[in-house]
Amino acid sequence: MKxxxxxxxxxxxxxxxxxxxxxxDGPWQLVLSVLCGGIxxxxxxxxxxxxxxxxxxxxxxxxxxxxxxxxxxxNEVEKLRGDGVPRLVENxxxxxxxxxxxxHAFAHAEIxxxxxxxxxxxxxxxxxxxxxxxxxxxxxxxxxxxxxAISTTVVDDGFWSTEPAGRxxxxxxxxxxxxxITVRRLFIVKRPEEIDALVPICTEQRDxxxxxxxxxxxxxxxxxxxxxxIDFIVFDRALSYxxxxxxLSVNTSTTVNxxxxxxxxxxxxxxxxxxxxxxxxSPNGVPSAVRARTxxxxxxxx
Length: 302
Hints:
By secondary structure, the protein is of the alpha/beta class.
């Protein structure tokens, strides 16, 4: 194409030269046309070279930028070498290159979900629809000091007889025995006559080493009844796990939060209601003494 354009320019110059001086038969018309065609050809090559040089420059800059991002990412992953991040990257790369397309799509969706969750955690809070039992189990396994929980009978109706509740209680018992953590659970009912219905639940949990109390709202003074009555758990007095229910008592969302200005009011709320609950009036007295295998303190503090 470049050669064709040069020939056409040379021919046009030759014709133009003959039109200007039709009676001059000297060779300068041919020399001028060849010179102009050559100049056009060289200019086209130079323009092409400059364009390719610009593209090469952009490509090299992009490669260096990618290398910088890769180096930064590698340095960040190195900080988590003891965690599962390198294993996650390795397995994710392997999964997306094997199996059917539905497996690839599922793997990518899970990676995107995890990335979005980690992005939420950078803001020190995260929320998911419904009740997230996976978060509950993981937080229980990560706890090193204490678990304080408020359970309302409205939200917990039937929960303690389910399979997730069994796994949750087993994880708490393991945490008490293996790590010597303290677990306190406060059940809230509306009327004192509802307390008897919680005897089997309280007995089972006390046998696991959980300190359990029950409080009836009608038996409390108005100052104790003020505020939201929601289900929440505070792990290690630093992180809250809150369950939100709608007007039909359906669990709509779960929130994990470590903002101190939002966790501390929940701690104060728990301690206020915990102290208001008379342990002598709670079913089955005090928790059983379950000693930790690590020779740590028992849940009752002895």
